Each structure stands twice: as C-alpha cells, then as structure tokens.
Fold each of these.
Amino acid sequence: MVCSEYNMSRVIRAESILFADMSVIVEEEKEGSGIGLGNGNGKWNYNLGDGGNYKGGNYYNYNNNYNNYEKSNKLKKYYLDLLKSNPCDSLVLRNYAKYLHEAENNTEKAEEYYGRAILASPGDGELLSLYGNLIWETQRDQHRAHFYFHRALHSSPNDSSVLGSYAHFLWEIEDEDEDKDVDEEK
C-alpha cells in the first residue's frame, strides 16, 4: 500500500468534513475510560470516565451534584496549589479568576485575581477583555469596562476572542441604551 493510500484509508468522510480514524477512541469508550465520540446512531455520547454520560446537552448522573461539588473542590485545590508555587504567573492567576467568576460566582475574588494577573501581564489582550467583561457584568460601569476592552483591542487587535467579547459588550450597551429610550418614552 502506498503511503497516501494508507493515509486516506485512515480518514473517514462524514458529509463534507474529514475526520481522522477514531478507532482508538472508540476502543477506549468500549472499555469505559476516556472520551468517546459517538455510538453510531448520529447522536453524540461522551463517556466522561466518572460514571456519568453526556448525551446531547444533558448530563445524566444520579450523583451529579455531589460529583460536581467534589470536582469543584479538587479544581479549587489544584489552582491554590499552583498559585502557591507560582504566585505571579499571569496564566494561573487568569485561569483561577475565570474559575472563581464562572464556576463559583465569586466576583469579588475574581476581580482581585484578574487585577493581580493584569499586574503580572499588562499586555495580555484576552485577560484585559475578561476583566472588562467582569466589570461590565458585575458593576455595569460602561466607561471602565470600555477602557479595559479598548486596552485589550490595542494589545491584541487580531485575537478573535477579544474581538468577540468586545462585540458582545457593544451589543449589550446598545440594547441597554434602547431599553432606556423605551422607558423614557413611557
């Protein structure tokens, strides 16, 4: 078999998208470990390796709350251990701040850790946009949030996540302004 024929035999075509042969992942799924990509019926089925399965948007697990709490505690301990060993690492600070904001909904601590991360890496556009988003979400301070988004765009003008965050921010400002105009007309 010629090399190119071998490579093509290891590729599966699904509609117009090419996927690599997933036989290794499928074998892991059969054994109950790792992450699988499907069960052959066109519906996604992820085996998360923790007794629960993710099927099309719903996480089925009878001990879901306990498992999430346990995972959250493990993740928090992991971040705190990383922070002990690398207290000025901007990536660790940013990720922990994002965890506090999104998983624990602790926006005060998230703001503190985002601030520390910005001090460690003031030119990180994605970090600046995350902080701007937090300021907008929690305080609705349009001018302050805009300041951080502007700095983010200046630092990373071609970063799609920064551009997307800024576009979302502008959209929300416009919606909020329209709501104010409607309230004033009444």
Amino acid sequence: MDYQPYFPPITLRKVFRKERSPSPSSSEITACKVFDFESEHLIQSQLPVEKMECGNNLIPPLRGSLSKPNSSGYALREVLAWGDDMYDSVQKGLHLVCKKKMDMNSPYHLQWPESLSAFFEAAQEQFPILTRYQDSWPARDFAKMYLKNKVGSDKAKVKTRNRMTDNN
C-alpha cells in the first residue's frame, strides 16, 4: 500500500487579519493635470523660432542636438519655419559660402577662427535674415551639417577606393 502524507491546506491554520482597503489621499482626489512630457516637448519644439525671441530682439540659439529631434534635439527645417523655398535657397547658398571660406576636409569644430568669421560675414551679407539670429546660429548649424556630411562622404569614398585597389 502506498503511503501518501496528508498536508492540510495552510489556509485552515492561518488567520488573516481584516485589512482596510486603501483609500486615496486628499491630494489624489483633487483635480490635477498630468502632463505628458513627450507631447509637451513636441509642441514646444514645433513652435516657430520667431515666437521665442529674447529681450534684445535677437532669436537665441536652441538647446539640444542639431538634427536629432528624437533625442531632445531639433530639426533645423522645422524650427526655422521659413518655408521650403526659402530654406532650400539659404541652404544651397550657405553650402557655396562654405566651399569658398572653409576647409572642406575638416569638420566645423576644427575650422580656423579666421575661416569661421569670414564665413559668417559672407553669410550675413548674402542672407540678411541671418542677422535676426543671435550669432547667426542657423548659418552655424547649416555649416556644421554640411561639413559633417561632406567629410563623412569623402572618407567613405576613400575607403571604397582603397578596397577596390586592394581587391585588384
């Protein structure tokens, strides 16, 4: 005959206290608005820059990383709100100024101060709208992105050429 021990359920021996149901505190009962940070941040970043002017009537530079809107940064096209035609013409013009005034083999942070001042002077002369912005920061951002992309694509081309010559 098989021997099977009998274990009575624990609940028969355990006495549970009667617990009071949790009631909300008075601060939880009052009407309060819960802000969704993501949507507030998106709404704030979509405001045209013209509405964020500082006391000296110059538009201050934005905080955050350029071209990284998902990482608390900003997209220049959306922030400036210039319209596609204006944005494209300024972008193309500043690319030409970059080619004339800066070293196209170095990123923005490695440019000579003389090159940068010549670039900003030419940029403001060609596009007077940049004088509305503190330190012409849109021109700086256009130059940063252009040089970053140019230097990166040149490095990629060199790598590709090196691979092609190594394979032959």
Amino acid sequence: MVGCLGNLYYSVENLSQTYIQPNQDEDSLLKPETTGLTQVLLLLTNESRTPISSEEKYYICLGCRIYISDNTTLICPSCRWYMNSEVTYIAPPTVNTSSSDEGGFVKGLVTYIVMDDLVVKPMSTISCITLINKFNVRKVGALEEKVVDITMAEGFGAAKGITAVQGCVN
C-alpha cells in the first residue's frame, strides 16, 4: 500500500501495544473479519463519539459492494455501477470492558500527532525534537501549538477528500 493511506495503515501497524486499549487489537483495524461496508461503519462509530443518526443514509453499488457513500450520484471506482442502493446501519453490540471504560482503540491520555501525509505517532518530547530537526526549524519560539478537534462528519469528509487527492493515493 502506497501514499498517504499506506502511511496511515503503517502508522497503526507500527503503533506500540502500550498505546492500544487492553481490550483492543490492531488487527481489528488492519485486518477486520467483516464485509467492506461493515468495516467502514465500525470505524466511523464508537460509543465515545457521536453515534450515526438514523437520518443519515449510506449507499453501496450492487456490483462489487466494496465501497460505501453518502451520495447516490457517485459511481463505484471498482465496478463502475452507481452507488445508489441504500443500506441500513446496524450498531454493533456494546461490549462491557472491565479493564477500561474508555472507548476507541487507543488510550485516551496519550496525545497523537497526525502529519499532513497521514503519518500518525504518539506525541513525546523526543518526537517533537525530531520534527524540529526534520523541518530545520531555527526559531523554536516562533512555533505554536494548535489543537484541532474534529467531529465525526468532518473526519469522514477529510477521509473522502484524501482519497480524491491524486498525489496522496499514488
């Protein structure tokens, strides 16, 4: 896998087990045992995030049924059929975890940095110094910290945009 999506995949693959929730496994993200449609919806939903509303509609093609869209005018990039067959989202059962009440796949107390090429790393003093050196920053005082909170819809939109950028997925 190459490009930005490959970087995202390899970031999860190389993430140390110490950052992953005790009740989770990176293979559930990297090699899910579900159909393509379910994979996308499971990644989009989480108890700690805003649940998918019953008003949101998702569509697949009737050809390969690999991709999902929220727009019926799109054509499937694999089989070239219209993405106009509505699917119903069924929420996964809630899992009671005794070791952690946090949702998600990674531990919540860790801050992560996401680079513009979708490389994801846990934030630490060492990683900050490495980035400062990598980008040849001379005036450390000129740097600003910026925390960006995004909603589920914004994250989904960004993911759609990333796959549309020619230079990112090549």
